[in-house]
Amino acid sequence: MRPFESIHFKSTAPGARLIVTGAVHGNETCGTVAIRRVLDDIAQGRLALIAGEVTFVPVTNPLAYERRQRQGDRNLNRKLAPTSEIREFEDHVANWLCPLLARHEVLLDLHSFHTAGEPFAMVGPENNTGTLEPFAHAEEEEALAVRLGVRRIVDGWLGTYAAGVERRRAQLAAARQPLHEHDADYGVGTTEYMRRVGGWGFTLECGQHEDPRAPEVAYRAILNTLAHLRLIDAPAPAPATDVEALHLFEVVDKAHDADRFVRDWASFDAVRAGDVIGLRHDGTPVAAATDGRIVFPNPAALAGAEWFYLARPSPRFNTARAMR
């Protein structure tokens, strides 16, 4: 198993502090491929840092990467935080990764997904002083999100995840079952941790795991981010003009291992109110309560885990603020 590795470049001129991560999930390798391509560009003199600093982490979770699977002992992108109680390999990763994230201002975290679908960026909340995910960098996220090279932008992750946790806790409490691992912090991954330590950033879902176009999406996003932050001498990327903004608002869990979808859903397939999305093991239909889109459908989900999310249109990026 390889050791932890990060490659750091620092200019003599002041500027933003960017970190780019790949293979947080070991079977999501498009970011690894793209980062190594950028590193080769730097080594061959095709790309040069003119301001600020950037750190590249080609393989964030080496155990999962070596096994070519989503996780080593557990999902690194759940309840990410340093810990003094080392139980699983991902605890070692967290103790190395979290201080590294905290030394930067901006995170570009490169992922892929298991069903077919169009690439998309996930952003944080609008500015707020709430208790779940207080935030003060929405304008910066919005301005870069529309320049990453994808047209679909999704928000609402942590709030929706937390609502799902509360529902699970109520169900478990009613059944007098333990509440272990059921709290809102299990929705905290790399970007959520970054926001908690004062930074901002994105999860960029670059396409399906095996899609040969996904590494190119990741590569283009890295270059656009470097250019937008003025870390390299390149034209500033133009904002997308056909943004589809979506807000996650509901998560539906798999209640039984035999629950099944009625068709092969892909992320962002449209659903109408009343459309049957799946069937419970006893034949009870699971239908959409309102019009929207299905996100992260997971036919392999285990009982008690997230089965799919639902999203609806958001007016958030239909403003001039993100286009500046």
Describe the structure.
This protein has 324 residues and is of the alpha/beta class. The chain has two domains: 245 residues, Zn peptidases (Aminopeptidase); 61 residues, OB fold (Dihydrolipoamide Acetyltransferase, E2P) (Beta Barrel). Helices cover 25% and strands 22% of the residues. The protein is built from seven helices and 14 strands. α4 links the parallel β5 and β6. α1 packs across α7. It is globular and about 65 Å long. The model has no long low-confidence stretch (mean pLDDT 92).
Number of domains: 2
Strand order of the largest sheet: 1-3-2-4-7-5-6-8-14-13-10
Helicity level: 25-40%
| Rg from Cα | 20 Å
CATH class of the largest domain: Alpha Beta
In CATH, the topology of the largest domain is named Aminopeptidase
Q: Key terms for this structure?
A:
324 residues; OB fold (Dihydrolipoamide Acetyltransferase, E2P); 2 domains; 3-stranded antiparallel beta sheet; 25% helix
